Amino acid sequence: MEAFLISTSIVALAEMGDKTQLLSLVLAARFRKPWPIVLGILVATLANHALAGAVGAWVTTVLGPQALRWVLGLSFIAMAVWMLIPDKLDDDGEGKGVRLGVFGTTVVAFFIAEMGDKTQIATVMLAAQYNAYLWVVAGTTLGMMIANAPVVWLGDRLVKKVPIRLVHIISAVIFLVLGLLALFVPQATPLA
């Protein structure tokens, strides 16, 4: 259950101001159909994070406990630094997707936008850290929905009221603490 709660919290915070949250806003403004957009976000996130979680689970079978501890610790610290770099929405796919409909456009756009994104990398690391694939994927998916669904329904009114820089700093501190725990507290890594 700890893996689920931490995964949900980290991804919900990390997603604030992320390019996929900006993508949610763009899709909501463009299509003005919240339900197919939210369902598309859910499907794309489940697919993307299921793959990322599988990679994280696989890593635990390849690396020994000491190597895993160092990889995880340094990866979490790198994520802390990455959280302090603001995301911008890329123009990839602009003007495309009308043939796919609102749901299809959202699924494709979100899946692609999540490739190599902070939350996908976090899912890999959390799955490796907790060795709890289903809990991590469920938690990271819920975190994505917590961060993105309100944006679809409330649009830029919500985004303008959230102090994104503060949220990024809090996320960075959480990742830093997780990294330091993985490096210096052997019990923080399940395989150690």
From TrEMBL:
Ranges in coiled-coil conformation: none
Subcellular location: Membrane
Transmembrane portions of the chain: 37-61, 67-85, 97-113, 133-154, 166-185
Entry-linked InterPro entries: GDT1-like (IPR001727)
Key words, A-Z: Membrane, Transmembrane, Transmembrane helix
The UniProt record lists the keyword Membrane: yes
Membrane topology, from the record: Multi-pass membrane protein
Family as reported in the entry's similarity comment: Belongs to the GDT1 family.
Name of the protein: GDT1 family protein
Organism: Diaphorobacter limosus
Lineage: Bacteria, Pseudomonadati, Pseudomonadota, Betaproteobacteria, Burkholderiales
